[in-house]
Design a protein that fits this description.
Strand content: 5-15%
Structural class: mainly alpha
Number of helices: 19
Shape: globular
Strand order of the largest sheet: 1-8
Number of strands: 10
Largest sheet: 2 strands, parallel
Distance between the termini: 41 Å
Radius of gyration: 24 Å
Helix content: 40-55%
């Protein structure tokens, strides 16, 4: 939990007690059940109380995207006997999802409900300060960027009630996001510690870098040089460094990582909702980590994706492989046979039994805290500096600057125990991004940019191009008839 969230809770408690005390010492006063809108949010403490909940919504970022990562080649949830047999896991793998899938409806609702909350707060007189306005506009732009990236033609909600208006083209939303960020940049804070988990100037640069890196997908016109300029602003600030200890960025107490540009803070008791270990690890890993409950034995990676990691690559340590042990070192068994995780997943739908239960290597990129019950305290990393180097390297590559591209990509590889590249191709850049950013929820966007999202992999056939966009959720069309479904659905 960040200092701003803790401060907001304390602030709210203070004002509750204060208002109650004042109303009881003078019974002749008129007692109000609400604080007048222009009378609250005028001090920094009150302002923090109002801003805090807006970032609470951002804390659900991982929850909204983790299951949708199954549409990529890095994560799958095969059926294991009677477990994980729901149809969504197969249709996400095969790109045959229906328009009424709850995952899309949940994503859309989360985006626009958070935008609506920002629009309600941003007009409060207490939010008039330039830095505060810039921070909220940047947060609102981030949500619009997510909507545009996932759904294409979406709503621009820049005022109260506008989230129920009609769609704008993807290019119009792109232009809106760019304008909001560029106008907000000068007023945003450069104090990355004070703004940890919040919108700083470097978060705005990062969103712009992502916007420009994918500009050809969004608008048909590449913006590689603009992407480089935004990456330069982050790298040249010297506020962030690539960590030599790869997994430390994802440790239980990772809030001081020099890599993190934007994260969503979690705490196993104060800000819950991050439970990455539960979704993927085998049931028996409960005894490896002395967890309070058994994991669900779902998500794994494919042998094809795992094999992109060379034996010396330190990033390979993000995977649980081989024999499962108890915390005391005992080799555990599953139904009487050694509990050995296998690299191969023999089929998407497997029979009940240990073979199916043990298929697939599991991600522990985020450190599993021994003795934890369910929720984890690791902060989820949305943006980090290693991605910036890889983005800049890719943009240099697109512009034909081979030496500059190699320098950026090798700046990451040199920290990961692997030899430097001497040449680059589309395939090597995409693979390097996969190794560095696996399960950080960037893969769908990367596959689309490299024109590989519709290609066949492990259990997925070739899919049609229109699947690069999710459908506009049917529930949202029913609520707002001005919405039109994406082509192909």
């Amino acid at each position: 939990m960040t200092s701003i969230q803790k401060f907001s809770i304390r602030s709210l408690s203070f004002w509750t007690v204060t208002i109650f005390t004042l109303s009881c010492t003078n019974l002749d006063e008129t007692v109000k059940d609400q604080v007048e809108r222009d009378k609250f949010g005028v001090s920094q403490g009150q302002l923090n109380t109002l801003i805090g909940p807006l970032y609470g919504g951002l804390g659900d970022y991982w929850n909204r995207f983790e299951l949708l990562n199954c549409v990529t080649d890095e994560q799958l949830a095969p059926t294991r006997g009677g477990d994980w047999g729901e149809p969504e896991w197969r249709f996400m793998e095969e790109h045959t999802w229906p328009t009424n899938f709850y995952g899309f409806d949940g994503l859309w609702s989360w985006i626009y409900s958070n935008i609506a909350k920002i629009n309600e707060k941003i007009t409060n007189p207490g939010f008039a300060a330039a830095e505060t306005q810039a921070e909220l506009r940047t947060l609102r732009a981030f949500y619009h960027y997510l909507a545009m990236d996932n759904f294409g033609n979406v709503i621009i909600a820049s005022s109260i009630g506008s989230e129920n208006s009609g769609q704008r083209t993807r290019k119009e939303v792109y232009d809106f996001v760019e304008k909001e960020l560029l106008e907000s940049l000068p007023a945003l804070s450069t104090d990355v510690r004070a703004k940890y988990g919040r919108m700083s100037r470097y978060v705005a640069h990062m969103i712009l870098a992502k916007l420009y890196l994918n500009a050809k997908v969004y608008t048909g016109e590449a913006q590689w040089q603009k992407a480089i300029e935004q990456c330069n602003a982050i790298i040249d600030s010297d506020k962030f460094q690539v960590s030599s200890d790869f997994l430390s960025t994802f440790s239980v107490n990772n809030e001081n990582s020099p890599e993190i540009i934007l994260s969503t803070p979690y705490d196993k008791s104060k800000r819950t909702g991050f439970f990455a270990q539960m979704a993927g690890m085998h049931y028996l890993h409960q005894f490896t980590y002395d967890l309070g409950s058994a994991p669900w034995n779902g998500y794994c990676t494919s042998a094809e994706f795992y094999d992109t990691f060379s034996p010396t690559d330190v990033r390979r340590e993000m995977w649980l492989t081989g024999q499962i042990y108890s915390s005391s070192g005992e080799a555990l068994k599953d139904d009487g046979i050694p509990a050995i995780l296998t690299k191969e997943v023999p089929a998407f739908k497997m029979d009940a039994g240990p073979v199916g239960r043990l298929a697939g290597y599991r991600s522990v990129k985020y450190e599993v805290e021994k003795g934890a019950n369910f929720d984890m305290s690791n902060d989820f990393v949305i943006f980090r500096i290693s991605d910036v180097y890889l983005m800049r390297g890719e943009a240099h590559f697109r512009l034909g600057s081979a030496a500059l591209a190699l320098a950026d990509v090798n700046a990451i590889r040199s920290k990961r125990g692997v030899d430097n590249f001497t040449t680059l191709t589309d395939a090597t850049i995409l693979a390097e991004r996969g190794r560095e950013l696996a399960w950080e929820l960037h893969r769908r966007q990367d596959l689309i940019r490299f024109d590989k999202f519709t290609a066949a992999w492990t259990f997925k056939p070739v899919s049609p191009k229109y699947r690069e966009l999710y459908p506009i959720p049917m529930n949202q069309i029913a609520l707002n008839p001005l919405l039109k479904q994406n082509t192909g659905y």
